[in-house]
Structures are given as C-alpha cells and as structure tokens.
Amino acid sequence: MATENMKLRVKTGEKDGKNFWDDCGVLFINRNPAGEITSIQVRHNMFPGVDMVAFPKRADDQE
User: Which domain of life, per UniProt (predicted)?
Assistant: First the structure.
C-alpha cells in the first residue's frame, strides 16, 4: 500500500513580485495496491494533536 504525503502551505505575503509561503500542515493519502484512495488524513499546525480525516483511516493504512 502506498502513502503520499503533501505539504499544506498558506501564502503569507508578497514583496517585489515574490510570494512567501508558510508550511502549515501535511496531507496523507493512503492507497490500496490497486491505486484507489482508502483514506485521507490531515495534520494542521492550527490544531496540534488533532487528526482530521476526509474519510476514516483503516486498520491496514500506514503512516
């Protein structure tokens, strides 16, 4: 089973045509061997210690 990790970023400013970003969390996408999404979890720095899910984590999902 594959897990994809994606950074969550928020634009914090712009100066002289440059954008400034702050990493604010991580998105974990768990897939089964067929490549289908089995669950999605979000960890965000505004909610430390809280696991948010798009749909529930299954027992065989890995982090």
Answer: Bacteria
